[in-house]
Request: fold
Amino acid sequence: MKRIIGLFISMLALILTAQLIPGIEIISLGAGFWAALILGLVNTFIKPILTLFTLPLTILSFGLFLVLINGGMLLLTAWLVPGFIVANFLAAVSGAILVSIFSNLMLKSLI
Reply:
């Protein structure tokens, strides 16, 4: 049940982000669902590998490089999911920041 609630929260965070960031668009609710699911899978399996390979850059930037990695994960998700569009890297980075903020706020409000 926790995973379904987490997926629903991620989908809501993506939809809110798409409403606020001009470069991000979700065509349908189904695309939002698949984007949330694929983003969760990408963050689970690919992000740790990239984080490990870019550890020196992350340490030198005091962790700020992780924001760029999160933007890259959002771009990868947009590439994999039809109906989920991210226009450019700046939109991806700002969208990743907002998705993180919205997800954390919604999860903390449930606790």
The chain has six helices and two strands. Residues 2-110 form one domain.
